[in-house]
Structures are given as C-alpha cells and as structure tokens.
Amino acid sequence: MSLEVIVLAAGKGKRMRSDLPKVLHTLAGRPLITHVLETATALNPRAIHVVCGRDGAAVQAATGGDAVRWVVQAEQRGTGHAVQQALPGVSPDAMVLVMYADVPLVQCETLRAVVNSAGRGGLALLTVVREDPAGYGRVLRDSEGRIEAIVEERDASDDQRAINEVNTGILAAPAPALTRWLARVTNRNDQQEFYLTDVAALADHDDVVVHGLVAPTREEVLGVNSRQELALAERVYQRRCAQTLMQNGVTVMDPDRIDIRGTVTAGRDCVLDVNAVLEGTVNLGDRVTIGPNNAIRDASIGDDVVVLANCVIEQARIGAGSRIGPFARIRPGAVIEEQVHIGNFVEIKNSELRAGAKVNHLSYVGDTTVGRGTNIGAGVITCNYDGARKHRTEIGDDVFVGSNSQLVAPVTIEQGATVGAGSTITSNVPERTLAVTRARQRHVSGWRRPSKDTKR
Ligand code: UD1
Ligand code: CA
Hints:
With 456 residues, this protein is an alpha/beta fold. The protein contains eight helices and 37 strands. The protein is elongated and about 105 Å long.
C-alpha cells in the first residue's frame, strides 16, 4: 500500500492575533508548514495534499509548494470535513496519514510507526499523555486497553475529562475505510463541526482495531496555536539543534542561548559562545571560536578562526587563522584569506583581503582589494561611491595606509607604497613611494587661545 499524506492547514489561527496565516509564522526562520512538508516528504509518500482555507494562495506562494496538491476548504466545518475535501484526490489503494501544519516538531520515526500500525490493519492514532489534558480530545480505552472513542473536551463528562491520554490528531488509515467512516460522521456535537476524531468510535463499532501509539515526548506533538506556543516550539527546535551540534563535537556554552536558522556544519572542537544566531548555510572549519552575540548568515569560516563578540557576518568567506572583531561587520562579497585581522568598528564589503592583511580599527573597506600583509591604519575609508556609481580601490601587497586617510576610488596604491596619515588620495600611488597630502604643520608661537576668563 503506498502512502499519501493529508496536511490540515485551513484553521484561521485566531489565537495568534495576526494578519499572517498561522502556518506562515516562522520556526527557526522558516514557515511552520515548511517544516511539516519537509517531514512529510521525508516519508517518501506518493502524494502530499494540503488542505488550506481562503488564505491558501498566500500559503502556497510562500511555500512555493509545487510538489504538493492544494485543496481549498472554503469554510472550516471541522477536521473531518477538512480531510473529506482531500480524499477525492487520494488514490483508493493508498494508506492515508493525516498531519497538521501547526504541529511542526513531529519526527519521521514516530510517523512511520503510526503508518506501520495502520498497515497491520485498521486505524492508528498517535496519542500523548499530558499532566494537564485541558483543551484536548480524550482517548477512551476499554478495560483491556483497546481504544473505543475520542471525545472532545467540550463534549466530555467529568470522568472523561480526568483522562490524561489525549489525541494528538495525527492518524493513519487506508483511504477506503477513512472515506467510509467520514461519510458517517455527523456534526451533532457542541461545536456543530464534523470531527475527524469520530472515526475512532466508528472503527471500533465496525470491529476494526484502533491502534493507539503514545508519542515518545510531549514536545514532539506540540501544536502551535498562540505566540506562547510558537516560542515554546522554537526552544524545543533550538535545543535539538544544540544537541546535534554537541553530539558532533561542538562545545555549546549554553544550549538555551543559541539560534540556528538554517544548516550549520562544524569541524572538530569548535566553540559557540552564548547568543550566536546562525542563519542560512554556515560552515565552520576545525577549532573555530564564535564569541558572544554574533549574527552569522551564509558564511564559510576556516580552521582556527576566532570571531570575537558582537560581529555581523553575511555572505562572506573567512580564511584559516583569521581574527574578526569585536564589533566588526563583514558584508556580502567579502573574501578574507588566511591570517587576516579585522578589528573593532570595521566594515568590509565586496572586497578581497589577501593573507596577513590587517584592518584593525574603525575603517570602511568597500569594493577593494587589499594585498598580502598590507596594513590599513585606524579610520581609513575607501570612498567607493560618487553618488551614482561604485568604483574599486586596488591596494597592493605590503602597503601601509596611515590612519585617517581617504582613498578616493577608482584608485590604485601599488605594492610597497606608504600613505601618510591624514591623506586624501585621489591619484594612483606608484610602488614603494610615500604619498602625503595633508597640509604642512605650522607653528604660531605664543598664541593664546580664547579663554572664558579673558576680559575684553
Ligand atoms: C483537535 C482534535 C483533538 C486533539 C487536538 C490536538 C478534532 C475534532 N479534535 O482539536 O482531539 O486533541 O486537535 O491538537 O479533530 N482544521 C482545518 N479545517 C477545519 C478545522 C480544523 O483544516 O475545518 C485544522 C486546523 O488548521 C488545525 C487542525 O485542523 O491545524 C486542528 O484543528 P483545531 O480546530 O485546532 O482542533 P482542536 O480543537 O485543537
Ligand atoms: Ca489545535
């Protein structure tokens, strides 16, 4: 029997108090529904059907989901009704797994176990035991532990409400059986909705076994209905990421203070200090140290690099043994070779810094090549923009650019040249030459500066 997944995503998500469809709120930087579709895809189903509401177009656009079949449930008349909208498109020989776009943390292995149980004949439900079952459908079992029904809280008796085993909503059953049961579901309940959960009692009534699998953890089946639950889910996700990094040999100073919003690979003995936010694809070599409060996106960082506190690094490559920060900003297109030092309040954009170059304090380096071993003094600015176009600055190897100089691009400073401090360089400097443009120093001896006490 081949597998088809139905993902329910039509709910309005009122408790989010948001203009954005709930399933587009992000977990680890990506929409909730994207996580669920990824997990569903990993099960290798023949098809994925997503049931969305009237805001479905926005959801479709945001997930770019060509690989799934979209079904619109124009009116939210209950979970059973939602599944019914998708069933006509499911092939009659399929095993159906029902998932929820707002339950983003469920694991493949758990879902496989549910599908496998249903495959042994019957209906399989994923349940979970909660200390506080309030708000959930309760699982009713007979004296031998067989599931007889699920009853929603608002329809439950006091005795039933005392039950701690609740329905996660996730279930699997063969398509024909599900279709038959759903045709018999009524909306005679407190909410006047067509409940998917009623299939449990109908299966039991037909003498079909209802398998109840208890989810390994409560976290895994956490549903996101509010911003509080979104924050909870985010932490669960991040703790998982931190565990994986640690298992792979990364020291994570505080697993509760790290945010991975993408894919991170790391070599041996890397250290991540607190409040690292790593986004997109970040590759760390061996023995990389990322200090506190660093935001790094889509970057490749070589062996033995130290990134000190409070840097922003985006779409950049940093070569082995380099030292970045504190307080540096490395912008897109920065290619930094080995053993480069970039210090505090330095901004690098679309520039190559060759091995051993140093830009240690308060500089802007944009659209520039900095040669090997070249030293850029404090407060140097490459003036790359004339108000209309960007221009390049070429700086050779072993150049020394004195502090507080401006290099007005396009301009070339050849190898071995020196720029005197405080210069404004507008034409090319030949190799091994000193260029100074500042006014000569004058002395006015005996000059008295105005003073507040001076009587006029
Ligand atoms: C549902 C279950 C309950 C379970 C709980 C777990 C039913 C009747 N009850 O209750 O037993 O404990 O989930 O979280 O199934 N949806 C649609 N179309 C609809 C209605 C819902 O797509 O017409 C989607 C929602 O977007 C949501 C999911 O189905 O993702 C669950 O719906 P919701 O209304 O939140 O059900 P609960 O009352 O939480
Ligand atoms: Ca819910």
